[in-house]
Amino acid sequence: MAELLAAGTALGVASSLVTFSDVAWRVLKRLKEYNDRTGNAPAVIKNISAQLPVLIDKMTEVKLETEKGSVSINPQTALAVAVTSCDELIQRLDVVTKKLLPEETDSRSKRIKKAFSSVYYEKEVSKAWGEIENYKTLLILHFTETKGAVQELETPRSKKPIFMVPFERDLKFVGRVDINTDIKQALQRQRRVAIAGIGGVGKSQIAIEYCYQFKEEYPEAQVFWVHASTVARFRQAYQDIARRLLIPGWNDPKVDTLQLVYEQLTDNDNCRWLLILDNADDTEVFFPSTEVKSKTQGELGGVARYLPHNSSGLIIITTRDTRVGRKLANGEKPITVLHMTVQEAKTMMLSRVLESCCESDLDRLLADLEYLPLAITQAAGFITETRITLSAYLNLLSANNASILDKEFDDWRRDSETSNSVIQTWKLSFDQIKRRHPRAAEILSLMAVLDRQGLQSFLLYENNEQEAEFIMALGTLQAFLLITSEKGGRVFEMHRLVQLATQRWLYLQGSLSNWQERALSVLSEKFPLGTYENWPICEVLSPHAQVILRCTFESKSCMLQYARLLNNFGWYNQTQGQYKAAYKKISEALKEREKALGKEHPDALTSVSNLAEVLESQGKYEAAEEMNRQALDGREKTFGKEHPNTLTSVNNLALVLQYQGKYEAAEEMNRRALDGYEKALGKEHPDTLASVYCLAYLLYRQQEYNTASELYQRASSGFRKTLGLSHPTTIACEKHYSSMMQKMGQDV
User: Which of 401, 409, 399 is closest to 376 using CA atoms?
Assistant: First the structure.
């Protein structure tokens, strides 16, 4: 088997020698055309155009030597490394240079996009060529040993420390000075530090900038970059490190490359190094659970054990999950990366949008983008590419158009395998949470369709749910920095962009409407009738009810829940003196209930009765009387004349008759209600006392003061006992009684 592997590797080297020249000449042709078109190509492209023909000659010489048999290609030699690596990199240059030039078949929009993207692809060309240059010395040494002095590509350099940061330095990097200082101070106390933050907040950009500053301060140091989003990417990064360091055995298929790099960096105390562990978000990559271990071959125990440690090495971890960051940093609390300051955000946007912009529009847009670096960069890219104004982009965003946050754009500062849109960036977190913590994903989904602030834990808690599971699920969302808590950890808030992104995620899954229906079900159950004792809970649920009532529902069950929420919310509006809002909600509730249940259904009659009270409060007494009689007739048929619900309609009708000055009819209805309540509910029941209170007021209006006084005293005393001194009904009753007694010239 080993012989077959070695033979296969040798064939791979030979194949690289064959293909290199053809691909390299194609690249040269493209670069010449690009230089001719632009008239002022960057220096790196001119340098490649000058140097690449010489490199082609040297690769051709190696090919001829192997064909003659004067050179035997051993796959484990430095020469084989140089040949295969140069071939891989020229293939990459072939792909990138193709993107630089528009083709005849390209549409106008694609040509414009390529023009805007040229800076990004120029950076990619520079990066690939920089890696090719790392292998020049190996080729030079080969010819020096076999042929003596040769014409060299350039004077052989002394071996330089390796700097494996796959991104150019961002000359427009903005601020984050405090975070940089925090990292430096932390690394003076510990060998590992984690920086945690929501996706797109700029963690990787901070790490990139820190690498360049570290290199300036310690030019002899080695700097490594490890993409850690998956085990495969972690392993690939370690293979690249082993190859660049030329660690003996790096290309031996029987050698564990992870262990090889771990031992090299752990045992070498004389070499200062910095390792960036980027996108270390998935705990299963580093600390797999038993279930994952049983399904995974090779990385049992996770890759965390391959992170090197010695007195000369430092590790910076970037992560979205603070819990993963803490574990990888040996239990040290991660440095949290928050959104930019207002000034940092302004500087960043203005450095990327060339046209002048309105200061107020800029302030509003940055606030709507919540000062998130990725959102700012994405907005700037969209504005530049489409040439719209900040105001126009702001209008798109203000319309809750989450799709605008799903647009991809080219950003050479981000990992090529990482999305450059806010939606897709956060989708990685959402998908991971759904996969690893399903209950947390459910809570996030419910939060996404409610108001983003004042998210009460009792809205999110399921019946019969284990409290420990609920707390762990919320902890997961907080660890990913998707929500924040307030008021003792029982009330939560989502960032606006997180909510928009989650809604978009649910929409793309086809489950947004399902979660809106679930939210409706929860609210219709939790939102009580807006009586005095329910005011506090109605107040905190009102914003969520307003959001969900703007949604569209179709099924009969949903429409009944919708009507119930409308009715209860409308009654709360009524008790708060918001009569227009109350009338609109209760009217709509009545319409839906009559449509689904029929006009004689108790729920429909409740809405009729409630609507009558709203009309009465608006002074529309004739309409209120008509609605009250409709409710009374329906309830007498449905419940009978002595049922408490029927008596409520009797009492309500008495009030509206009284307000119209129809005192005799009103008194008759009042006494009927009172007599019925006393029989059905007892003399001390609040509804009975309310009827006593109404009769007292009616007799007062008819100047029957003595009888009214007796009834007022009875009602007041009863309200104090059953409702309490501070209840609005108690206060109103005593106020009316006091007013009457003062009018009579007596003290209460």
Answer: 409
Range of the domain at 448: 422-510
Considering the domain architecture, whether residues 203 and 319 belong to the same structural domain is answered as yes
Beta strands across the sheet bearing 313-319: 222-227, 273-278, 313-319, 192-196, 335-336
CATH of the domain at 442: 1.10.10.10
Residue 68 and residue 213 in one domain? no
**Is the domain of 318 the same as that of 350?**
no
* CA pair distance 414, 411, nearest whole angstrom: 6
Tens-place pLDDT, residues 478-519: 988 888 887 667 899 988 888 888 998 899 899 999 999 999
Q: Are 377 and 352 in contact (CB under 8 A)?
A: yes
494 & 577 share domain = no
Pairing of strands 491-494, 455-456: antiparallel
pTM: 0.66
- Whether 39 and 188 share a structural domain: no
Residue 234: partners with Cβ closer than 8 Å, 6 or more residues away: 226, 227, 228, 258, 285, 303, 306
Of 176-180, 285-289, 397-401, 557-561, give the range with the top mean pLDDT. Answer: 557-561
Type of residue numbered 666? A
How many domains are there within the chain? 5
Q: How many CA atoms lie within 13 A of 271 on its CB side?
A: 18
Secondary structure letter of residue 551 according to DSSP: S
Q: Helix (H) and strand (E) counts for the chain?
A: 32, 8
Separation CA 628–CA 582 (nearest Å): 17
Do residues 308 and 195 share a domain?
yes
Q: Are 219 and 161 in contact (CB under 8 A)?
A: yes
704 lies in some domain: no
CA distances (Å), origin 125, targets 73, 91, 131, 277, 492? 29, 11, 10, 25, 47
Considering only residues 608 and 159, tell me which one the structure prediction assigns the higher pLDDT.
608
Are residues 524 and 565 in contact, defined by beta-carbon separation less than 8 angstroms? Answer: yes
Verify that 304 and 348 share a domain, yes or no. Answer: no
Beta-bridge mates of residue 315: 192, 275
Residue 591 DSSP one-character state: H
Shared domain check, 537 and 450 = no
How far is C-alpha 323 from the geometric centre of its chain's CA atoms? 18
The residues with which 195 forms a beta bridge, in sequence order, are 318, 335
Alpha-carbon distance 206 to 737, whole Å? Answer: 71
What lies within 8 Å, CB to CB, of 562 at 6+ separation is 520, 524, 549, 553, 592
pLDDT, one tens digit per residue, over 31-87 is 777 777 766 667 777 777 777 787 787 778 777 777 776 665 555 566 677 777 787
Tell me what pLDDT residue 589 has. Answer: 96
Kindly report, residue by residue over 284-331, the tens digit of the pLDDT.
999 998 655 544 444 456 899 999 988 889 999 999 999 999 999 999
The answer on pLDDT for 15 being more than 80 is: no
